[in-house]
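User: Predict DUF1700 domain-containing protein's structure from this.
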Amino acid sequence: MTKKQFISKLNASLKRLPYEERQDIIQDIEEYFVIGSEEGKSEEQVATSLGSPEQIAKELVAAYRVEKVEETTSTGNIIRAVWAVIGLGFFNLVIVLGPFVALAGVIIAGWLMGISFVASPIFVLLNVAIHPQIFEIFDLFFSIGLAGIGLFIAIGMFFATRAIKNGFVRYLKYTIGIVKGGLKHA
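Assistant:
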């Protein structure tokens, strides 16, 4: 594969990245070809030593998506990072998607529980407005107690969500490191 073909395939595979990021990557690849020609290698030999442009693009997109999650944490960025890492190989479908779905379920369940406990006095008051004949003071005090517990759960979920997000980003980086070439031992 020639330099032009390699860069063309790489550029096509990197279309999901911003233009400036693609240009930086292509410039780096062109430098590899220049260094290879200075060492007396042909364009085909340099292209072979670099590997598949599609696989390089997958690894770079995954790394870029994980960096974006670190910069700006949003649900969209996290999901894009997970899909980019899953795209590195079928193995990652099981290794990344399983823990992601489990952790997302725990986070969603915790937040729903905290919010519903906090909102329980409102539901009791609505019930009293609709059916005033079944009002019991115990229900009101019990719902106020649940609201207090719900506040503690919501505060705990705030910190748990942040910790789980940070841990999952580290896990994604670890997975990318394994795919890129195994663990680096000092």
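Residues 71-181 form one domain.
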